[in-house]
Design brief:
5-stranded mixed barrel; globular; PmbA/TldD fold; 434 residues; 6-stranded antiparallel sheet; alpha+beta
């Protein structure tokens, strides 16, 4: 990078280099048979410059790629006015997210784990159309700026996912687990997958009206995504967020405490800095229902006359990557657990819904806290699961409905990119049978 950096110092006012390198191994099984093994080395670069007060961008594979700087400088001629400066030299917190054992894994190791999973499921349900995916990755991220930032972070991850479509349902059941270190056969995850699949073989439609709804960790996006859209510094700066001017006010139930915590040791989602080279920090976004913090990147912080909170990430609603402009996003959402076992939530419902996903979320008014989805999950009657949801819509407003939480589970797990418990909402609008 030295040659590019020395050239940038001479030709533009400011620069920021983002360089992501990844080594990945992926193993895929379909219908209990090994289908594919892939191994890739990937590299991607994003260069941002400020020249004569305007922003320019260019993208490539390696920092020494010819014309990378010239392309960014050329783009700056027509770029938007820069209202901020790139990050300056600072220190970063220590976060343990790298395991040499993971970095040394081979496809043979991943196949062995898949075989164990396959055998446990085949012993119970050899008839299902099962997909197993197992992956291992080693990543290194570098962010460097002309103002002295030099941030480097290495991370590893091992992941396992299961999926099987349910006959005649138009949907399926899936489970996912990830860690920075190799893990053995996740018996609890596999057994819950089998339980959920068996629950899905019978269809059931709840009555129309307001019903209690359990949000499984997989469905946490129905709360987390609208909340983070409202906390976005961009929305605050534009005055379009429903949370403008509400710092310290009650916005959720007092049983809900939501953190942004990118510094959790041993978590694949953790990291010491954001994609703009700003140090990460653990901080409360919502504390016992009270609004405590917004999500700011460099751009939105400048608009508000504040400092970045370390929340500039190259992510959007569905995806992201090196070519994505940094946006105010959480590093890693963590919701504090409660005291109620998940099984007790189900047992205590006369009629209700256990939701693990929903289709159509993106077309709703989620920036204002509202959602309406085709519900994927289970119908609960008299404390027992009656069957999978069929012809069922679920709608709500997090700033109204999630002020009324009946219980939060003592169990937590990763779901939709967050570490969250099961959350029993007192009632959401359910459209089912007349």
């Amino acid at each position: 990078m030295t040659r590019l950096m020395s050239m940038a110092r001479e030709k533009v006012d400011q620069y920021e280099l983002y360089w992501q390198r990844t080594h990945k191994i992926d193993v895929r099984y379909e219908n209990f048979h090994l289908q594919q093994i892939t191994e890739n080395d990937l590299s991607s670069v994003a260069l941002r410059v400020i020249d004569r007060g305007r922003l320019g961008f260019s993208y490539g594979v390696f920092p020494d790629q010819p014309d990378l700087l010239a392309q960014a400088k050329g783009a700056a001629v027509f770029g938007e006015q820069a209202e901020f400066s790139f990050s300056e030299s600072t220190s970063f917190p220590q976060v343990e997210t790298h395991d040499e054992q993971t970095a040394s894994l081979t496809s043979k190791d991943l196949v062995a784990l898949c075989e164990e999973v396959k055998e446990r499921i085949a012993a119970v349900r050899p008839d299902i159309a099962l997909t197993i995916q197992c992956g291992a990755a080693s990543r290194r991220l570098t962010v460097e700026t002309g103002a002295g930032t030099h941030a480097e972070h290495a991370a590893t991850s091992v992941s396992l996912s299961l999926f099987a479509p349910v006959k005649g349902a138009g949907s399926g059941v899936g489970k996912y687990q990830a860690a920075i270190s190799p893990f053995t056969l996740p018996v609890e995850m596999v057994d819950e997958f089998l339980q959920w699949y068996s629950w899905s073989e019978t269809a059931s439609t709840p009555k129309t009206g307001r019903l209690p709804v359990i949000l499984a960790p997989e469905a946490s996006f129905l709360l987390v995504t609208p909340l983070c859209a409202g906390l976005s510094g961009n929305a605050i700066a534009k005055g379009t967020s429903p949370l403008c001017g509400r710092m310290g006010e009650t916005i959720l139930a007092d049983s809900l405490t939501v953190y942004d915590d990118p510094l959790r040791a041993g978590d694949p989602a953790s990291r010491p800095f954001d994609d703009e080279g700003i140090p990460g920090q653990q901080r409360a976004l919502v504390e016992r229902g009270l609004l405590r913090g917004y999500l700011l990147d460099l751009h939105s912080a400048a608009k508000l006359g504040e400092k970045s909170t370390g929340n500039g990430f190259k992510r959007v609603l569905f995806g992201g990557g090196s070519e994505t402009t940094p946006n105010p996003q959480p590093g890693h959402v963590v919701i504090e657990p409660g005291r109620t076992p998940y099984a007790e939530m189900i047992a205590g419902l006369e009629e209700g819904v256990l939701l693990f996903s929903g289709m159509g979320f993106h077309s709703g008014n989620y920036p204002q806290g509202q959602f309406a989805v085709q519900g994927f999950g289970f119908h609960i009657v008299d404390g027992k699961v009656k069957g999978r949801l069929e012809r069922t819509m679920v709608a709500g407003d997090i700033y109204q409905d999630m002020k009324h939480i009946r219980a939060v589970s003592c169990e937590r797990r990763e779901g939709a990119g967050s570490l969250v418990p099961y959350i029993l909402v007192d009632s959401l609008q359910v459209a089912g049978r007349p």
